[in-house]
Amino acid sequence: SMLVELCSSIPDGVVAFFTSYSYMENIICEWDGMGILRQLTKSKLVFIETKDVVETTLALDNYRRACDSGRGAVFLSVARGKVSEGINFDRHYGRAVIMFGVPFQYTLSHILRARLEFLQTHYQIREQDFLNFDALRQASQCVGRVIRSKVDYGLMIFADSRYNRQDKRGKLPKWILQFLGDAQLNLSTDTAIAQVKQFLRVMAQPVDQNALKQVLLTVEEVEMMSPPTNTNVETIES
Fold first, then answer.
1. CA-closest candidate to residue 158, choices 143, 145, 171
2. Among 61, 124, 138, 188, which is most buried by a count of CB atoms within 10 Å?
């Protein structure tokens, strides 16, 4: 119900990340049986990332078209997948991103077990410390897909109570932590929706051009920062 309410309140594009393909598939099956997907399509078109690169690329293209047309769309994707690694959802393509769960690695992987043993033996890094750090780094990468410039804006929603714990939340980067005060922690769905609407209401106001000048460089300032071009060319003949 949270995703349905968010999608009905947030314009343009919304991206949701799950911790694995199997988890996403199970959730989508449950949502379909509960009628949640039908409710979602009333406010946005629904697109899903798959393991097939061609299918995912086509879904992304159609997702962008839906956002460009004003219809709006929600893209369901997977942490550590194609979308989370290199696809940007700037501007109206990503007005909100939702992280469902904490994206821990599959701990029975032989490669991961060898890496954990190496870190423990050579650097005394405990297994749980590395797994927590890696999971929160991946979560940060996922939610960071929606902020790609100084003038961009978007909502980052961590839909898991474990992010309230200091040992998890404290591993998020400072540029995210600065917006995670007590008023943004452990919220009910109704409170979260109210904050979402308030944020979007503020961001919908006209841009203060004087304030914008304080964060953007002029062409002259960029040219002054660029290293001088050496126009003297020495020709050597043999």
1. 143
2. 138
Percent composition of the chain: helix, strand, coil (DSSP 3-state, to 5): 55, 10, 35
Residues 6+ apart with CB under 8 A from 120: 126, 127
Q: Which helix (H) or strand (E) holds 140?
A: helix 127-143
Cβ pair 72, 13 in contact under 8 A: yes
Q: How far is C-alpha 188 from the geometric centre of its chain's CA atoms? A: 21
Contacts of 133 (CB under 8 A, 6+ apart): 171
Per the CB < 8 A criterion, the answer to whether 104 and 135 are in contact is: yes
Q: At what angle are helices 110-123 and 127-143 packed, to 10 degrees?
A: 120
Integer CA distances (angstroms), 206 to 66, 181, 201, 202, in order? 25, 26, 11, 9
Would you state the structure tokens that stand for residue 206, as one six-digit string?
């006209």
The low-confidence residues of the chain, meaning pLDDT below 70, are 215, 227-238
Per-residue pLDDT, 149: 83
How far, in Å, CA of 56 to CA of 58, rounded?
5
- Whether 87 and 61 have beta carbons less than 8 Å apart is answered as no
Q: Whose structure tokens read 């020709």?
A: 235
Spatial separation of the C-alpha atoms in residues 193 and 43, rounded to whole Å: 16
